[in-house]
User: What shape does this take?
Amino acid sequence: MNERIAIVEDEDDLRESLKILLEREDYYVKDFKDGTDALVGIKEEVFDLLLLDWMIPKLSGIELLRILRNDSNYNSLAVIMVTAKTMEINIVNALNLGADDYIIKPFRREELLARVKAVLRRYKLKETKGTPLLKYGEIWADTSKHKAGDLEKTFNLTPMEFKILIYFIENAGKLFTREQILSQFWEEEKDVDIRAVDVHIARMREKMGSSGKVIETVRGLGYRMKELNEPF
Assistant: This one.
C-alpha cells in the first residue's frame, strides 16, 4: 500500500501544488487548511507522515505537534515541519517536541521529496529493527555483543557511546538537539551537564577514526548521522 501523507497548509496554491507533487510520486494525500480540521482528520484516518506548516489558523502547527506527540496513538506518525521561520530557536523547539525533520520556505521540489523519502525510510527501519547485527555503509554494530566497528577495526566504545551510535544508526538522517540526546540517555541523572553530549560524541568520533565523519554537527542545532548518499 502507498504511504499516506497529510498536508496542513493554509496557503491554497502551495497546498494544492504539494498535493499534486506528492500524488505524482504515488503517495496517498489528504490536505487540510487549518490545525483543527487536521487534528480531526488525523483521528479519522491513519497517516504515515504529516507535512505541517508552522503558521496555520485555529490551531498552530507547533500546538498540533505537541498534541500528537503527547498521544501514544500517533507514535508511528512521522512529522516534517514546513516553515518560513529561520530562527534557530523555532527549529530547536520543533525538534525537541518531536518533529522528525524541517524544511524552510521557499524550497525546491527535489529537496522536499528527498526529505519525505528519507523520513519515511527511517520509520520503516524502526518497524523492522530487532536483528542483532546492524550495518550502515562500512560501519557494523552487533547489539548482542555490544561491539561495533568498520572494515578496518573494531571501535573501543564505552556502553554509553555504543548506545548513542545505535540510536544514530536507527535514526540516520534525523537531526537531534543536545537536549533530546541528553533526555534520551541521561533522563534519570538530573545533574548531568548538557556538555556531556558533546564530550561523548567527540570521543566516539575519535575512536571511530575516519568513520566518525558520518556523525555530523549541525551548528547551533545538534547532531545527526548523515544519509549514506551524502558525502562524508
